[in-house]
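Propose amino acids for all 145 sites.
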């Protein structure tokens, strides 16, 4: 499986996806610092939300094979600048999370916003129910553990 860096706002589902991909019990916890779990680098949402911390994402991305931009479509805020994916030194894919909680309109908006950020390809998943995980895991090059 590729080594991935998870990027997204607070409560967008980064840690839950990390736990799902690594076969761990899903247990909510607030990520306070960069954590490496297997081949997954989980980052605090504040690194995206506070531009003064954004450089930590850029530096850490050099250790990854791919960056995943995560977006919770049920949130009313959008933190990715158009074309932001081009700033990273590795490929950037998108993941619309919490699809089990979102409306069809929210899902469509989430896909469009990640596309504008330059993420490609884009996956839609629920880390809780497992919906959409098969395609993401196949893209990452390994079986879900």
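Proposal:
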């Amino acid at each position: 499986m590729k080594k991935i860096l998870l990027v997204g706002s607070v409560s967008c589902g980064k840690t839950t996806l990390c736990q799902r991909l690594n076969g761990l019990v899903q247990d909510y916890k607030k990520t306070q610092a960069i954590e490496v779990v297997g081949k997954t680098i989980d980052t605090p949402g504040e690194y995206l939300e506070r531009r003064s911390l954004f450089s930590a994402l850029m530096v850490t991305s050099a250790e990854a094979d791919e960056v995943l931009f995560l977006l919770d479509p049920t949130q009313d805020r959008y933190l990715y600048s158009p074309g932001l994916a081009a700033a990273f030194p590795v490929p950037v894919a998108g993941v619309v999370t919490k699809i089990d909680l979102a409306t069809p309109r929210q899902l469509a908006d989430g896909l469009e916003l990640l596309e504008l950020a330059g993420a490609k390809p884009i996956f839609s998943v629920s880390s809780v129910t497992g919906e959409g995980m098969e395609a993401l895991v196949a893209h990452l090059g390994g079986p879900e553990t």
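The chain has a mean pLDDT of 94. The radius of gyration is 14 Å.
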